Automatic annotation (TrEMBL):
Its main location: membrane. This is histidine kinase. It comes from Qipengyuania citrea. PANTHER family: SENSOR HISTIDINE KINASE ENVZ, SENSOR PROTEIN CREC. It is found in: Cell inner membrane.
């Protein structure tokens, strides 16, 4: 998961998903607020209509008192409700009635915002408002509704099944002592809009993110292949078949440029190998002839010095050529038990009577190039023996790396010179004596070996004295 979030594909996908969710969240809030405002406006209009219509019916009522009326029906509330919602219907004489006092009871909280909005609606209809009260209470807490529910089991059943709040509006017009009281069951908030918004978000998310994924994969797949090819070429330096050109036009141009660069660098490296091979051959041949000729020198001491000088030149030449060849191999690394590899190297020094010890902390396996890693480990051990006289080799696993550690009890390296010691022809002391100073290529070659394996060579002075050199190779 962490690798996905760190990739270009993962970061763009997560950014787009987050942006989409934020945008949909803002849109959902705005739509929900708009729906709530429409609901509130519908409720206020219904309350105003209830007051106006009820007043007109009350004015006509005296002339109709002697007439026989049919059975009363439960009227539908003039307020918004979802399709198919079970609505509460109040008897007409409860929906509107007139009283001699305000319906507001002590302790009941008035709703000033609704009062202002309703007053504006009534004023637009020509009603001169002297006093107006608006408040809510639970439906069955109202005495009139509760009494009606006791008489009408159907009304009570619906009120118990879907609890509603009751909006009570009291109006006293200017110049009148009569209070007009309207009661409206408030519909429950429509939750369908929330489900709709959620479904809309899911559909948009699936469509847009899915489409974006396929588009990004078309871009990032060639980039991943290009990155892997570049990594391999940077490690081994071996030219491969040109990478297939694919993807958008920009990516195609990048792949074409990489193929051209790889071909050019590969040819230059091949030329370098040929040149170094020729130089090595041309130098070693006269050195071998010179080694034969010095045998005719009578002075034994002079002859020995000449032989040592030729040996130093030959060894230095071998190290230079080895350094140049590191990484130039087409062979794949082999999974190797590093304890056994280190043991074979340590045995070589033990056979020569050199004080080298080995300690392994469990079985450590890593993909390595056997020949080069052995060469690098020999260099570290030789370096420790040269400056300290002893070497201790430890094989362990640490922080996801295989570690080949070589400790010594020598003088160490000044902290400001540790990085310099990894550069070619840099020696721990100024003499050119191979037994003390060496050619200055051992640590450079060891660093190249570590980098060939995707790892690093780490040098550090030990607190108790001496130097610690480590190959750290990812496993």
């Amino acid at each position: 998961m962490r690798r996905f979030t760190q990739s270009l594909l993962g970061q763009v996908m997560l950014s787009m998903a987050a942006a989409l969710l934020i945008a949909q969240g803002i849109s959902a809030v705005m739509l929900y607020r708009a729906a709530s405002e429409r609901r509130e406006l519908a409720i206020m209009n219904a309350a105003a209509f209830q007051l106006l219509a009820g007043a007109r019916r009350a004015e006509r009522a005296p002339s109709q008192r002697g007439e026989r009326r049919g059975p009363r029906r439960l009227a539908r509330p003039l307020s918004p409700a979802g399709e198919g919602e079970r609505r509460i219907r109040l008897p007409r004489n409860i929906r509107y009635r007139e009283a001699g006092q305000s319906p507001l009871v002590p302790g009941q909280a008035r709703q000033a915002e609704r009062e202002t909005e309703l007053a504006d609606i009534l004023a637009a209809q020509g009603v001169d408002v002297e006093e107006l009260v608006v408040f809510e209470r639970p439906l069955l807490d109202d005495e009139l509704v509760r009494a009606a529910a006791e008489r009408r089991p159907r009304l009570k059943a619906r009120a118990d099944a879907t609890p509603h709040d009751l909006l009570v509006v009291g109006l006293r017009q200017a110049g009148s002592d009569t209070w007009q009281v309207a009661r409206l069951p408030l519909p429950q908030r429509d939750r369908a809009i929330v489900r709709t918004l959620a479904m809309q978000t899911v559909i948009l998310f699936l469509v847009l993110v899915g489409l974006l994924y396929f588009v990004l994969r078309r871009i990032t797949r060639p980039l991943d292949t290009l990155a892997e090819r570049t990594r391999r070429f940077g490690g081994a330096g071996m030219a491969e078949e040109p990478l297939a050109v694919s993807g958008p036009q920009d990516i195609r141009r990048l792949i074409e440029a990489h193929n051209a660069m790889q071909a050019r660098i590969g040819s230059m490296l091949d030329e370098k190998d040929v040149m170094l091979g020729a130089i090595g051959h041309d130098l070693k041949t006269p050195l071998a002839a010179l080694r034969v000729r010095i045998e005719s020198v009578d002075d034994e001491a002079a002859r020995a010095k000449m032989a040592d000088s030729i040996e130093d030149i030959t060894n230095t030449l071998d190290e230079i050529l080895s350094l140049a060849r590191i990484g130039r191999t087409s062979a794949a690394p082999e999974r190797t038990e590093l304890g056994a590899l280190a043991e074979s190297v340590v045995e070589e020094f033990e056979d020569m009577g050199r004080p080298v010890t080995l300690d392994t902390e469990g079985r450590v396996v890593a993909p390595v190039h056997l020949t080069w890693l052995k060469r690098g480990l020999r260099n570290l051990i030789t370096n420790a023996l040269r400056y300290a006289g002893t070497a201790r080799v430890t094989i362990l696993r640490e922080d996801g790396h295989a570690v080949l550690r070589v400790d010594d009890d020598g003088p160490g390296i000044p902290a400001d010179r540790i990085q310099d010691m990894l550069e070619p022809f840099t020696r721990g002391e100024a003499s050119r004596n191979r037994e003390t100073g060496g050619a200055g290529l051992g640590l450079t070659l060891a660093r190249a070996v570590a980098e060939q394996h995707g790892g690093a060579l780490v040098l550090a002075n030990r607190p108790e004295g001496g130097l610690r050199a480590e190959f750290r190779i990812p496993v």
